[in-house]
Please model this.
Amino acid sequence: MLLIIFILWVIFNGRLTPETALPGVAISAALFWFAYKYMNYKPGNDIKIVRFFLRGLRYAGVVFLETVKSNIYVTKIVFSRKINIDPQMVFFKTSLRTEAARVVLANSITLTPGTLTVVLTDGIFCVHCLKSDLSEGIDKSLFVEQLRRFETPR
Model:
């Protein structure tokens, strides 16, 4: 955090000279000390924030790839000469502990074409699937694996 404060100081000053660097170091150190002493700042929090951000980027990539794959799959169904669908409702219980992770999972399932989360109550999902093979492994999907990493502290 100290380095980030100093970099911001240099950016706002527009140059790096001894006349701007010395007060910048002093002010950055004072801000760091204030945050540590009075705002309960801990340097380990920066690492947690970076990890959380990287996990979020990875999850966004997984959602994007799964959405593209589902779009291709549903497009094949729609453009086939004989529409062969067997819609069904699937119920499953998730092992995700937090309500936020469950809601993100429900929205991720709904974002992928061919599936729609109908109800989420107490960790039990009701999902409508366009075809039965879309429901296979839905309770152990990549979404669940990635969201479990958010819940696991490291």
The longest strand covers residues 115-121. The CA atoms of residues 88 and 129 lie 5 Å apart.
